[in-house]
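Need tokens for this chain, all 580 residues.
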Amino acid sequence: MLRPLVLLISAVGLMTAAPMTYTLTGSGSGYWNGQPFTNAPFTFTFTSDTSTVVHGPSCCGSADSTPSETAANVSVAGFSPAQLKGDQAIFIDHANVTAGIWHFNAAQYATVTNTVFSSDDLTTAIPPTGVTGTAWSYATPFALSSGGTLYFSSVQNVYYSQQPGSPGSQISAVSLAPNSGTQHQYTIQNYTVVIGDTSGAADIGGVDLQFRDKPAQPNACWLYYNTGSNTLTINNQNNWSTPVPVGSGGSVLTGDGCAVDTRNVTVSSSGNNLTLAFPIQLTFGDNNTWQIFVDAQTKANVDAGYAQLGTVFVQTPQSSGTFSVSVSPDASHTVYARPGDSRTFIVTLTDEDGFSEPVTFSGASFAETRASGNTTQLGLSFNPSTLTTAGTTTMTVTVPDSATLDGYVLTVTGTSQSVTQKTNGYTSGFIQVQNGPPQITLSPTTGSGATGKFSINWSRSPTATANFPNSVHVLISSSLDTRSACWLYYDNGDPPGLGQLWLASDDTTSWTLVGQVSGGKRQPASNSQCTIGADYTPGPLTIPVTFKSGFAGTRTIYVDAVNGTGFDTGYQALGGWTVQ
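Here are the structure tokens for all 580 residues:
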């Protein structure tokens, strides 16, 4: 996903053959071994030697690259650091003024564009936080040493650096104060954390502070401080907030069980130590002892590991209680509807701390494009409208016949005599309103050769975007017979844009996943008619195809797209190709 960033100018200097450390930092969203993360800070650290740089690999004459399988570590906030296991490498493409991570001599993974890369190569020094620019991410996973794969659906605030030498610092969590005691719910306590680094405080890259309360709130309060940007972010419902400045220009961050005003956070350093003071308000209490853990990382991605440095007993006010409200399916699972349709959701009321008051429900909808003038309100009703104890109510959502095509967030408010609670972006519901089939285009529409790269795109106009496809079939054949053809199926995913591509067997009785990881590498898929490259890209769907010689002849390219409400384009002949 393209994210605009501010360009900075880097200072560079010539280097001789020597060890070199390459670093890519930023924040992004994606999947770690199948586990989603949102706006999580990340650091990639590659270590190589300038004498092994590959100049002009076979794919790209204007590029320089470290070797395939360059040693690389990665950390993403919320997960234990791991090594990349595959064909990973660092590259600079001079012609396109782009640098970053790629599958050696193949698909790109995460990149940043800056004019400095027109002249710099992989032997020059580029200081940390010195080079940023337009950043891209690609759904081309790398295998992890800890199991599974890692890929990003979006990245932002990306910085690239090259420094001589190999990382070798030792970092540790030194102390926490106070490290024991009692804190009452809704009160504020200052917690002071000290981190030590053998290379000096300036070498520290980030600090995690985590309060754990099992089983009610496993991540009751989880904060991450980034030294490079002097920002703080908080985890809420397994999603990371947008980083907020510490000190002037800060604001209040709210997590699962705590809140922090970053304007009152203080940071200081002395020698090898970094000291941070966090004013933490605990907004959830259960008369339980919470464990307090601290972790830290160097700028070269050396991780201290989580260490328990203290505990706190969180006491609930004796006369108070509260409740929570959630919607199922929640906003992470899209529900589709046409104008005039009704859909039902289950709203759950959960009592906490002995709460016993009746709760009355109300709801509202908010269009994703409301900033562009969409003020449509969906109809929300509840049966029953009031619950006197913990339980569920059915929410019926009615889409007006005149509803603007859009996605709508559904928020639910529960009101009692003393407490009002509202669902957040994660615990709310979501409806996508659609009224027609997707509008699909193909590029190129004609051509010839043994290979081709075909882009299946859907219109980006507001109305057409709402009718985006959930699935797409692509058939390359001399007729609409799918047997002995190049027949593909693309599942756009939930949420859309994180889909998978499959290739049918000759007899159409089985399907092969394109890009399946084997031996640490994404693999192509083949039948007797064609081979589909593992470097395909989703949304718009771009498919690299290599045809088999026995499939030579004039072929028609048919495309069929279906959206979430069942509107189907049917197979349409959108182009042709002469296979040679």
